[in-house]
């Protein structure tokens, strides 16, 4: 099932789910036949939303599709109704079908456990060991491979070869959803999104936060004319009238006048990007690994939402 078809089904199931259960707190008051129907709808919704997210991950893995086109109506419904209801669907499924929800959780934890125990890394190590054995048995193959260089890559502290961690990181990435042609996002922004995905994959957290700030500024500049936003101030310097370029803070405030809901997210990205690019003494505590990681992904997730708002058709924003 492709993304547009899956989104259409999700929309249909969610509408029926909300028709039967307008208030999730009333789930225990439903008659048993209705509970069965709601449970089945939650099963379909939960499974297909997860499958949709995996398809986005797959698209990034194998085609670098930083933007994905889906039908406008389905996308609007998913953003406005399904995404905000994900926790509700999860809770209702856990209430009505605990054994089914436990299976979903077990499978998710099983997949995560494969990564936590370094099994991907071990696969590379064992493969290299076998290649060394093969070359010892067939010396003529030595010129076909660069085993010593491969050993250096796997054991290098600088490269920090950790495919398990890279895979965990990619599970938090997804394309920007647009309701029209994906090239509505300009090439210079798509290029930087690809760079950001790679930066997050390999755990370069400070670079990711700074890059998020850069992409935000590019997106605002790209849409300034549509929003009728001036990029400069008229200033007087020594009795001469000049035009001074607005700061990103000024530009964010100008955009927020037209799209108020984006103000907090845009300022978060601006402030965190500035803080990492121009550190202060007070910033030392934020330089710790897990703080950097959390901030980088927070900047990324907010940025994706902003780009979807900016590049969706006007009637969807």
Mean pLDDT: 86
**Distance between the first and last residues' Cα:** 28 Å
* Helicity level: 55-70%
SSE run = HHEHHHHHHEHHEEHHH
| Largest beta-sheet details | 2 strands, parallel
- Low-confidence stretches at least 5 residues in length (pLDDT < 50)? none
Total strand segments? 4
Domain module count? 2
Structural class: mainly alpha
Number of H/I helices: 13
Sum up the overall morphology in one term.
flat
- For the CA atoms, what is the radius of gyration? 24 Å
- How are strands sequenced across the largest beta sheet? 1-2
What proportion strand? 5-15%
What does this structure look like?
- The protein has 317 residues and is mainly alpha-helical.
- The protein has 2 domains: 1-178, no CATH class; 185-317, Four Helix Bundle (Hemerythrin (Met), subunit A) (Up-down Bundle), CATH 1.20.120.
- It has helices at residues 3-20, 32-63, 72-82, 86-96, 98-116, 119-137, 147-155, 163-170, 187-201, 205-227, 248-258, 263-277, 289-311; strands at 67-69, 176-178, 232-237, 240-245.
- Strand 3 and strand 4 (240-245) form a beta hairpin.
- The chain starts with a helix and ends in a 6-residue tail after the last helix.
């Amino acid at each position: 099932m492709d993304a547009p078809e899956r989104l259409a089904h999700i929309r249909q199931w969610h509408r029926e789910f909300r028709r039967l259960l307008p208030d999730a707190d009333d789930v225990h008051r439903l008659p048993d036949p209705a509970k069965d129907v709601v449970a089945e709808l939650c099963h379909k919704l939960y499974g297909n939303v997860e499958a949709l997210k995996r398809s986005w991950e797959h698209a990034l893995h194998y085609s670098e599709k930083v933007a994905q086109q889906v039908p406008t109506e389905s996308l609007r419904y998913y953003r406005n109704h399904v995404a905000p209801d994900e926790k509700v669907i999860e809770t209702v499924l856990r209430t009505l079908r605990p054994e089914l929800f436990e299976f979903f959780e077990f499978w998710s934890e099983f997949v995560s456990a494969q990564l936590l125990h370094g099994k991907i890394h071990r696969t590379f190590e064992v493969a290299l060991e076998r290649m060394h054995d093969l070359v010892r048995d067939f010396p003529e193959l030595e010129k076909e491979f660069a085993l010593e260089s491969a050993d250096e890559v796997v054991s290098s502290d600088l490269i920090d070869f950790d495919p398990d961690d890279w895979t965990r990181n990619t599970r938090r990435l997804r394309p920007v959803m647009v309701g029209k042609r994906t090239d509505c996002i300009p090439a210079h922004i798509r290029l930087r999104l690809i760079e950001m995905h790679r930066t997050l994959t390999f755990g370069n957290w400070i670079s990711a936060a700074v890059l998020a700030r850069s992409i935000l500024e590019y997106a605002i500049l790209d849409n300034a004319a549509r929003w009728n936003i001036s990029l400069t101030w008229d200033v007087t310097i020594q009795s001469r009238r000049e035009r001074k370029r607005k700061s990103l803070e000024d530009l964010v405030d100008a955009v927020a006048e037209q799209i108020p809901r984006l103000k907090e997210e845009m300022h978060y990205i601006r402030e965190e990007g500035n803080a990492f690019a121009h550190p202060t003494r007070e910033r030392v505590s934020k330089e710790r690994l897990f703080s950097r990681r959390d901030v980088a992904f927070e900047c990324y997730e907010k940025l994706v939402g902003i780009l979807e708002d900016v590049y969706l058709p006007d009637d969807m924003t």
